[in-house]
Amino acid sequence: MVRLINPIKALSLMHAVTIKDVSKRFGVIKALDHVSLEVRKGEILGLLGPNGAGKTTMMAILTGILTKDSGSVNVLGMNIDTDIFVIKARINSVSGFSGIYAQLTIQEFLWYYAKLYNADTKIIPKLMKLTEIEKRKHELVNSLSSGFKQRVLFARALLNNPDLLLLDEPTVGLDVEIALKVRDLILSLKKKGKTILFTSHNLLEVEQLCDRIALINKGKILAIGTIPEIKRMLNAKLVVEIKCQHPSAAKKAIGSLGKIRNEEQYVLVVELKKENPKELLDRLIDADVGLESYRVLEPTLEEAFIKLVRQ
Amino acid sequence: MNTIIAEIVRQGIILKRNMFRLSDITIWPLILFYSLTLFIVFIKADTSLVALVILGIIGWRIVYHMQIEMTMAYMDHYWQHTLAYTHISPMRISAFIIGNIIVGALKFLLVLIMYLLLAKWMFAFTVPDPFTVTIALLFLGISGIFIGLILFGLTLLYHEHAFNLAYAVPDLLVLLSGVYYPIAIFPAFMQNVAAFLPPFWGFELLKSTVGYGQANYPLLVLSTIAWGAVSLFFLVWCYKRAKKTGRLAKLN
Predict the structure, then answer these.
(1) Does the structure's ipTM exceed the value 0.85?
(2) Which residue in A101, A128, A196, B78 has the fewest CB atoms around it within 10 Å?
(3) pTM of the complete model
(4) Does residue A213 lie in a domain region?
């Protein structure tokens, strides 16, 4: 017997978040302008954009602390307008800018929020162990370093065993070693099946962590896809780097196949007019240019990002 | 229920660790008590005037505690930069408010016990009509809650700017509600203004137990219901507005 699945229900099974045509204005400023976006279950989606792009506004709408002007938002298959308190119980967040209750100890701080989440307080020792904060659980939170505080915030974000985690620049202001630990923690959460929506200004971090990225600027989604897809989307022209003993012969061989973008003693950087790196390689070999290396240059995410924002 | 318990416990911990908060139920109420009672000792006031001042201090104190705790607790989150996160949690604002009303009531009870012991020791004071005084304090407490809801609503929108009002408003009410004197000393228009203030009829009932006020139960109940409706409506409006403008998330 064939069972038919309602397509809307099927989509909600696939997507942890579905944002459709959402707009939000603050006075004359369009913080979000007809934004549509899906976050698939179990993925880390990076939300990238310059300051004021609309990232925090989107996060605030998803957490129910800001109302949208128009459009629809579904989180974990529920409508944010009607089921916000059910949604809140199943999501959590960490922000690099969030404060911490200074006059409480780590244990008291986690107990307080466990109560707000209606969570079983027995989970607190396990989370303190996971985030390696249990040895200082009786210390006041204001005595901790920023890296340590961030680990406390991660422990807090896991109190309700959330299905969706919203991470708003969680490594901002952290030193390299702590940021690395936080990144490892994020990856371990993904392995546990958590869906993560992640914002960061650190593009390297985004490349390391995210399955897909969405580029946002001036309240609009500019592009969405995997990192190679985004790079391809923006770099129609392929660039190759040629290292050879006879650059002048190489230039002749390149001819109409490409345009020289950069030239140093024995190195040429060439922008190909068509996606034909093999054809150019054959020509260089035939021309006997003393080829030492030939490599196709991948654009960095940073280049792609800058290009998109400028466009 | 969990949010209510969490708020009470959190406030208890802060009270233990924060000298400023502890002063709110020790040093400041004592200064208020002594500054007024020593003055009436100095002017050799009769016992009914002494009772009027002591009841006035107690009445003012319940209004103060019941109105300030919710706003103070909210500002704690604001100052500690935990406000946005706390709103992200499934905490209901109503549970947060109820938790802090209970904290306010507990703090007032501690201050009340301290005042009654001091008044008994210094002036051989006994509560003149315990039933009526209890009713008056109950209504004054409720009016304090309603003032608190209005100030809380303003705090949702204007944060620290509105919070300053939480200290200023009770002082203004002391002046206009005739806590330590009959409002007959005011010009006629000010008497009319005073009659519309939330705690006015509560203070009148309290003062009536020592022969200085006019007990008017229907107006006491009606004005309480009216202020209750206004403050709840205003709070809901402020909450929706704060969510729309981004003040809840501190976005705009």
Answers:
(1) no
(2) B78
(3) 0.79
(4) yes
Would you say residue A231 lies in a domain? no
Express each pLDDT in A9-20 by its tens digit: 555 568 889 999
**Nearest CA-CA distance, residue A24 and chain B, Å:** 9
- Best of A23, A70, A76, A112 to disrupt the B interface (most B CBs within 10 Å) is A112
Largest CA distance in chain A: 75
pLDDT category at A201 given cuts 50, 70, 90 is: confident
Q: Residue A112 sits in a domain of what CATH number?
A: 3.40.50.300
- Among residues A212, A175, A185, the alpha carbon closest in space to that of A48 is found at A212
CA triple B24-B20-B206, angle to 5 deg: 10
The CATH number of whichever domain residue A254 belongs to comes to 3.30.70
Looking at A157, A192, A225, the residue that finishes a domain is A225
Residues A45 and A151 in one domain: yes
Q: Which domain holds residue A74?
A: 7-225
Same domain, A146 and A280: no
Into how many domains does chain A fold?
2
Residues with Cβ within 8 Å of residue A35, at least 6 apart in sequence: A19, A21, A22, A23, A54, A58, A71, A216, A219, A220, A221
Do A265 and A146 belong together in one domain?
no
Residues of chain B found within 8 Å of residue A152, distances taken between Cβ atoms: none
A32 plus A172 within the same structural domain: yes
Q: Per-residue pLDDT tens for A223-269?
A: 888 887 877 776 556 788 899 998 888 888 888 888 888 888 889 88
With beta carbons under 8 A apart, name residues in chain B contacting A97.
81
For residue A17, CA distances in Å to A38, A39, B182 come to 5, 5, 63
Which of B1, B14, B80 should we substitute to test contact with A (largest number of A Cβ atoms within 10 Å)? B80
